[in-house]
Amino acid sequence: MGRAKEISLKVIPGKVANPFMRRHHYSGTVVNNSCLHFGVFLDGQLHGVMSYGPSLNKSKILPLVAGTGWNEYLELNRMAFDSVLPRNSESRAISMSIKLLKKYAPHVKWIISFADACSCGDGAIYRASNFILTGIKENEALCLLPDGTKIHKLTLEANPLAPRRELGGRSFFDVTDGNFSWGRYMEAAGGALLSGYQLRYIYFIDKAKRKDLTVPEIPYSRIDELGAGMYKGEKMTLAERHVGKEA
Predict the structure, then answer these.
(1) Global model pTM greater than 0.85
(2) Are 114 and 201 in contact (CB under 8 A)?
(3) What domain count does the chain have?
(4) What pLDDT digit, counting tens, does each position of 126-145 carry?
(5) In contact, 144 and 194? CB cutoff 8 Å
(6) Rounded distance, CA 223 to CA 229, Å?
(7) Does some domain include residue 92?
(8) Is 243 part of a structural domain of the chain?
(9) Is residue 212 classed as helix, strand or coil in its secondary structure?
(10) Distance (Å, whole) CA 202 – CA 55
(11) Which domain holds residue 41?
(12) Residue 229 within a domain
């Protein structure tokens, strides 16, 4: 693991985490309801951030694991690391954050996260961290705007009355007549769905909760079967990735 063993993890405030995330995450954005930020340090300097928080739509996530209380899971909703950190730092940092959650937040039973294979990758970091693959679906919620930015429909649905730059100052509800119409928004904004897949991963801190999973566990090989494999925005099989550097 080399120098990855030398990294340290500290809880940091959003005013430190969010600027780093905007600079280094491929989306250039943060998730506004992130409430727990871990900074990843090497030689005393900040080189990575992981942000946890509740999901934007808990009603869809809670039923994935039967009997889950409203505060018994977290979503790892953003990760960003700069090029200074050595290889394997990402999976080591995830492992360290899980140990801290287990010690200081024992009410959290499991973690969910999503890999965006439309823009970045298919979740190799999660697989290296022993997350369970529980969902692979073609993208229907992430669109590319004419100025090159990307937006997820949950972002709009979470704040449908906010003025939107791509809509000339109008809100999501202004252009959809108060309806949650993703298609009408994309038409008004000139956006287009990104081609690719979204993958869903779950990690059970409380191993006993795994039996309560209400959706099938999917073998990693299914990623290649569906042609969903991607590395740094390029299509790639799992076998091809192992030839070079995994991310």
Answers:
(1) no
(2) yes
(3) 1
(4) 999 999 999 999 888 888 89
(5) yes
(6) 6
(7) yes
(8) no
(9) helix
(10) 13
(11) 2-137+197-218
(12) no
Which amino acid is present at 112? Answer: I
88, 80, 115, 77: which is closest to 7 by C-alpha? Answer: 88
Q: Choose among 174, 173, 166, 169: nearest CA to 149.
A: 166
Does the residue 162 lie in any domain?
no
For residues 154 and 157, give the distance between their C-alpha atoms in angstroms, rounded to a whole number. 5
Question: Across the strands, what pairs with 179?
Answer: none
- Reported as type and span, the H/E element at residue 151 is strand 150-152
How do residues 49-72 score in pLDDT, each as one tens digit?
A: 999 999 988 999 999 999 999 999
All residues at 6 or more sequence positions from 172 whose CB lies less than 8 Å from its CB, including other chains: 156, 157, 159, 160, 161, 162, 164, 185
Strands 150-152 and 73-81: unpaired
Compute the radius of gyration of the chain from its Cα atoms: 18
- Burial of residue 232 (CB within 10 Å: 0-12, 13-18, 19+) is exposed
Neighbours of 239 (CB within 10 A): 9
Residue 86 DSSP class: P
Residues 6+ apart with CB under 8 A from 13: 37
Question: What one-character-per-residue DSSP string does 1-40 give?
Answer: -GGGGG-EEEEE-HHHHHHHHHHHSTT----TT--EEEEE
Residue 203's CATH number: 3.40.630.30
Among residues 43, 37, 38, 106, which one has the least CA distance to residue 73? Answer: 106
